[in-house]
Design brief:
GO cellular component, one term: plasma membrane
Number of domains: 3
Protein name: Magnesium transporter MgtE
Strand content: 5-15%
Largest sheet: 3 strands, mixed
Distance between the termini: 70 Å
CATH superfamily of the largest domain: SLC41 divalent cation transporters, integral membrane domain
InterPro entries: CBS_dom, CBS_dom_sf, Mg_transptr_MgtE_intracell_dom, MgtE_N_sf, MgtE_transporter, SLC41_membr_dom, SLC41_membr_dom_sf
Helix content: 55-70%
Keywords: CBS domain, Cell membrane, Magnesium, Membrane, Metal-binding, Transmembrane, Transmembrane helix, Transport
Radius of gyration: 29 Å
Subunit structure: Homodimer.
Mean pLDDT: 81
């Protein structure tokens, strides 16, 4: 039977062809390739090209296609692309974006660029964008859209549908309409489906539902998780007096969650998140994303060296103890990392809160003790058979104590981070491993001294 030969994905072929054409400076060929490619493939292509080639390829797109593609790009890539375009091109693209998308882009650009771009906007668009920019970076108001369609409890279904028709080109979404009173306070929501299904003269008050709202000053991640858990298309964003200030759509919520989870995943691995795909990220950015963490962790690792130096006399008397150091610190680090990853995830999805620290500690103590007993029995038995019962007892007791301690530390650290308003991912797995390594060695050598009487 002839084996199947894997064919490259269309976007892979497009990337190869465009890179080859750019290498030969055949811009006509690049233009032809981009003209025939679906918009989603062009977005993926630009995402994978180096910044200079990305700007060249983008400029070869027809104007309308360029606008469509630009809106689909990640804010980080939009920011990189802006540096390769002329002021007139940037101004045109910026004006076509929705206000919330403009803020995403502005957050990726140098502060000196923002005023110039804002000045080029029409007054109405500038005011909408400024309203979103007025919220802190970590507030959900910074990610809401100020373009929405509302209705009133005393309006009929027919009147509400007419309002949708008049604003359909400007609104972020028309599938969920906030219902507000005369003071702009949210009193409910109504879906376009229900409006179309109702009798034309039916009042909105008769068909609207209770509104789930989010506070504009609320932290972004908990707010967007609430939206996704509700399973709604959009939720109204309100101020402290429940007045409507914007709307958060499900696609924006998913976009924010994807970004947050990418950052958490990177920081748990001891690196800063990359703003672009790996192959199109400049080497200097890769270095910058890792070097600071490596320096911090290297300084932390000096604790382990200090501990070993402090117990040098013990190692000289019983050199066999050094054989088990990698096993014990590896087990302790892995146990702490497992606990930290589990609790960080639970914290992110709202299953636990910072005030649950004692409950989490109690659970992780039990989990760590159980793991320690299982590993201790196995490790102690093997060490006894290979060496003697003294070494077996030391290994068994150390694994019990170390697993219990590491699980407790790993479980509590993310909650401590949230309590002091630090990203729990900052207390990443490498940090926990470094801390547990040093303390684990102290536990190990203290138990060894006690058992051996040295």
């Amino acid at each position: 039977m002839t084996p199947e030969i894997a064919t490259p994905a269309p976007v892979d072929t497009l990337v190869d062809d465009v890179e080859q054409a750019l290498g030969h400076r055949d811009l006509a060929a690049v233009s032809g390739l981009l003209a025939d490619a679906p918009a989603r493939h062009v977005v993926q292509l630009l995402d994978r090209l180096p910044p200079r080639q990305c700007a060249i390829a983008y400029r070869l797109l027809p104007k309308q296609r360029a606008l469509e593609v630009f809106e689909e790009l990640a804010p980080e890539l939009q920011g990189d692309l802006v540096h390769g375009l002329q002021d007139a091109e940037i101004a045109a693209l910026f004006a076509e974006l929705d206000p919330d998308d403009r803020v995403w882009l502005l957050d990726e650009l140098p502060a000196s660029v923002a005023p110039r771009l804002l000045r080029g906007l029409p007054v109405h668009e500038r005011d909408l964008t400024a309203a979103v920019l007025g919220y802190p970076r970590d507030a959900i108001g910074r990610r809401m859209s100020p373009e929405y369609v509302t209705t009133h409890p005393e309006f009929t279904a027919a009147q509400s549908i007419e309002r949708v028709r008049s604003r359909i080109d400007d609104a972020e979404t028309v599938y969920t309409l906030p219902v507000t009173d005369g003071s702009r306070r949210v009193v409910g929501v109504v879906s376009l489906r229900d409006l179309l299904r109702a009798a034309p003269d039916a009042l909105v008050a008769e068909i609207m539902e209770d509104a789930h709202t989010v506070d504009a000053d609320a932290d972004t991640e908990p707010a967007v998780r609430e939206v996704t858990e509700l399973g709604v298309l959009a939720v109204p964003v309100v101020d402290s007096e429940r007045r409507l200030v914007g709307i958060l759509t499900i696609d924006d919520a998913v976009r924010i969650l994807t970004r947050e989870e990418r950052e958490d995943s990177a920081r748990q691995g001891g690196v800063e998140p990359l703003s672009r795909p790996y192959l199109s990220t400049p080497i200097r950015r890769l270095v910058r994303s890792r070097v600071v963490w490596l320096l911090v962790l290297a300084l932390g690792a000096t604790l382990t060296v200090q501990v070993l130096e402090g117990f040098e006399s013990t190692l000289e008397k019983v050199t066999m103890l050094a054989l088990f150091v990698p096993l014990l610190i590896g087990t302790g680090g892995n146990t702490g990392n497992q606990a930290a990853t589990t609790v960080t995830r639970a914290l992110a999805v709202g299953e636990v809160r910072a005030r649950d620290v004692w409950r989490v500690l109690a659970r992780e103590l039990q989990v760590g003790l159980s793991l320690g007993l299982l590993l201790g029995l196995l490790g102690g038995a093997v060490a006894t058979l290979v060496y003697d019962w003294h070494i077996g007892l030391i290994i068994a007791l150390t694994l019990v104590a170390l697993c219990t301690f590491a699980a407790s530390v790993g479980g509590v650290k993310p909650l401590a981070a949230r309590a002091i308003r630090v990203d729990p991912a900052v207390f990443s797995n490498p940090f926990i491993s470094t801390f547990v390594d040093a303390t684990g060695l102290i536990i190990y050598f203290l138990i060894a001294r006690t058992v051996l009487g040295i």
